[in-house]
UniProtKB/TrEMBL annotation:
Pfam families: T6SS_TssG. This is Type VI secretion system protein, VC_A0111 family. The gene is hsiH2. InterPro entries: T6SS_TssG-like (IPR010732). It comes from the Bacteria.
Length: 385
């Protein structure tokens, strides 16, 4: 690298040199800039790059010894350049003074050149620091830990740790689509594009699917008592239809294993009085028991695939509508599942009729794909049904 330094971008070269030195030291102690006093026009920005010998900082109570630990040693590089230097062929100093400094340096009287190098050092170090702040490629940290990543997270709305926890994706995964996520105008194309990239499958969106909403008790009609003005507040029934209540996302075709990772966690009866032992039930029976008043329902921790899907959907929809998910599973990838099988509420391999298990049929009546549907509610508690 040092022998062919002219083939490198100067900022990337400085980044690589800084990476090989003690990062606890300031840049000015690791990179030493000196003016190239040659009268020749420079062929490259850096005339020479020379490694400095390892030095040991002397302690306050005496000179350093040879047995100092490697962490205490200071390794650096000396860079000779004509750019951003006071006295050089491209510098601002008038030519007579530059020639005077050149002649003194030839006579080994380097006091003037050393004085100018104080300003040369400061200018070149500041130049690199400013460039590094504005160029993500000059940051040695992992992409998810850089300052630019923090700024992008603030634009997306995930800078706070509690907000970021709602989208269980590594920061590196959504940095490339931060521009789409930061757009607060919710568009169908953004939802399809982001989910397609995250899931690695085709995504189709159907808007305005609609759903029934239960009316609040205070909004229902009670003749002679409440909301009984005909044509004004009187509403027949306990539900109202909202055409904008839901969206439908069709994902696929996916294989059976990918589908199981995207399924929501199955409700499991809590252990205790009135709860039915899971060992005596299949997963289908566990779901039925979970709906009974005697068995309190608990939800196991969501699977990573479903947590990612649910978090992205809530972020992209901004809790404006519930989302119906339809996974199209390739029929050849569905394995045969014998009965009986004990319930495993936290295991994606447990059987759920219509989602991860189906009744066997003749090959003539099978389709190329099997649809699996579930709902991600975003406007209330954020659970899934």
């Amino acid at each position: 690298m040092l022998r062919q330094h002219e083939d490198f971008n100067v900022f990337q070269l400085m980044r690589l040199m800084l990476r090989d030195t003690n990062r606890r030291l300031p840049i000015g102690r690791r990179l030493r800039f000196r003016a190239d006093l040659s009268a020749a026009f420079p062929a490259s920005e850096f005339a020479s790059v020379t490694p400095l010998p390892a030095l040991v900082d002397e302690p306050a109570n005496g000179p350093a010894n040879d047995a100092a630990p490697a962490e205490a040693r200071e390794q650096g590089f000396e860079i000779s350049t004509a750019n951003f230097c006071v006295a050089s062929v491209t510098g601002p100093l008038p030519e007579p003074f530059t020639e005077w400094a050149r002649e003194l340096a030839a006579l080994r009287a380097t006091a003037m050149a050393d004085f100018f190098d104080i300003f040369n050092q400061r200018a070149n170090v500041l130049r690199f620091q400013l460039k590094r702040e504005l160029t993500p490629g000059l940051d040695d940290a992992s992409p998810g830990q850089t300052a630019m990543a923090q700024r992008l997270a603030a634009l997306v709305g995930l800078d706070d740790a509690k907000l970021a926890a709602q989208v269980p994706l590594p920061k590196r995964a959504w940095l490339g689509i931060a521009g789409l996520l930061a757009n607060r105008r919710k568009q169908a194309s953004t939802l399809v594009e982001v989910l397609g990239l995250a899931l690695g499958a085709n995504v189709r969106l159907t808007e305005n699917v609609g759903a029934w909403h239960e009316l609040d008790e205070r909004d229902r009609c009670a003749l002679g008592r409440n909301n009984h003005r005909l044509g004004q507040t009187c509403v027949v029934g306990r539900r109202v239809w909202d055409q904008q209540a839901r969206l439908r996302l069709e994902i696929g075709v996916v294989d059976y294993a990918a589908m199981c990772r995207l399924l929501p966690p199955a409700p499991v009866p809590a252990a205790g009085a009135g709860a039915v032992p899971l060992d005596s039930l299949g997963a289908i029976g566990a779901l039925a028991a979970a709906g009974s008043p005697a068995a309190p329902v608990t939800l196991p921790p969501p699977q990573p695939g479903y947590a990612m899907l649910s978090g992205l959907v809530k972020l992209l929809v901004d809790r404006l509508a519930d989302v119906e998910i339809v996974l199209h599973v390739a029929d050849p990838s569905v394995p045969p599942t014998p009965l009986p099988q004990p319930a495993r509420g936290t295991d994606t391999s447990s059987m759920r009729l219509g989602q991860s298990a189906w009744l066997a049929g003749t090959p003539a009546h099978r389709h190329a794909t099997r649809p699996v549907s579930f709902l991600i509610t975003t406007r209330h508690s954020g659970g899934a049904a």
